[in-house]
Amino acid sequence: MVCMNDLMLTQEVHSPQEITCGAQRLREIARQKEIAPQTVLEVFEQWAAALDVRELREVPGLAFLRLWLRRGTLEPVLLRELGPDFLNGGWRKDGRARLRAFPLGVVGHWPAGNIEIQPVLSLTCAFLGGNGCLVRVPRGLLEITQQIMEKLQEVDRYGVLTERTFMVSFDHSRTNLHEAMAQAVDGAMIWGGAEAVSQVRKLPFPHWARVVVFGPRLSVAAMDAEAWGDRAERSSWCRRIARDVWQFEQRACSSPQALFLEFCDERDPDEFVKDLGEAFQEENRLHPRRQIEPSLTSGICLARALWLLEDAPNRAVFPASPDWTILLGRGTEIPKPTQGRTLSVLLVDDLLEVISKFDGTVQTLGLAVKSAQREEKLAQAAGRSGVDRVVKMGRMHLFSSPWDGVDLIRPMVRLVRHVRSQE
Predict the structure, then answer these.
(1) Is residue 75 helix, strand or coil?
(2) CATH homologous superfamily for 218-392?
(3) Where are the domains of the chain?
């Protein structure tokens, strides 16, 4: 098969040869054309600006993607993971030797199908390492991914990034095409649910391939009695948790599914829920849902009914529509997520008891705690219980590196050590 001279950014593929051909081209570009991270950051800045258009503003997660692409976000990540010399593609001293980062070659991306921006988010990490990107775009994300990538084409006038990109689409059941992708790459970034991740990890990757997995996780928030009982600050905290719930429609691993409130006899949780309901209503006014899948509507209605039937003291606050839901009760276990802007608010006697039950599935813990000493204890307990991020409530989606406890760019480069022969 003859390789294409010009690779389309998104292409339906039907044979392993098409994938192999595309990967070969990407690998040659990565080897022959160096690209410094500073150059990538410059294109990213222009890309972020180009994405600020009316037709894309309602895309879940696009605001996050625009912030992610900014130099102020990614330059600190590069500095932390690889050091200042890497920004311009240079060597840095390491004793009598020197080190320099080189691309792996071709990085394959298997994004999850439920996060609109994830195909693009994943490839940005490999771009910063100078790699070529072979991305399988889930069918349901083809249109939005194409729209986002068209904005990259507009600003990438010399093709420094677009020529390093090959986005493919094929049915998830085509095992031979998944295998062709795996065999053609030097690294991989895998995202998604347990079943999808397990299937991709079984693929025949080369023995030298670097494989990084971001599997299924969930997130929760927690407030001590002093924080939620403070009337002067309560409305602000409620607005923060509402923003965390609204982003990504609660489909992201960093989306809070439950909020644990530390109980106190002197404070009325109904007052908190009233303020939280007002914050949800306001967030819904600012960012209304344009459409909703029938299955999600059914799931929300079922969750409301089951919650109220499960235990007589349980209460719920929600509008007539399925726009948002607050489920109030007691318990230290994380309920099964409903998503769709459905937040379980659970009263507990001790936040430490809740955190001690985490089993490694919790990715992010959003905290609102008055005492710095108390927060230190909670953060320590969370780290020991498998939590990778402990952040201020309202900032649960503000990612940096590490992500799920793993560096984002460092695994997608090779650090070459050079000891001069003259030494």
Answers:
(1) helix
(2) Aldehyde Dehydrogenase; Chain A, domain 2 (3.40.309.10)
(3) 10-215+404-418, 218-392
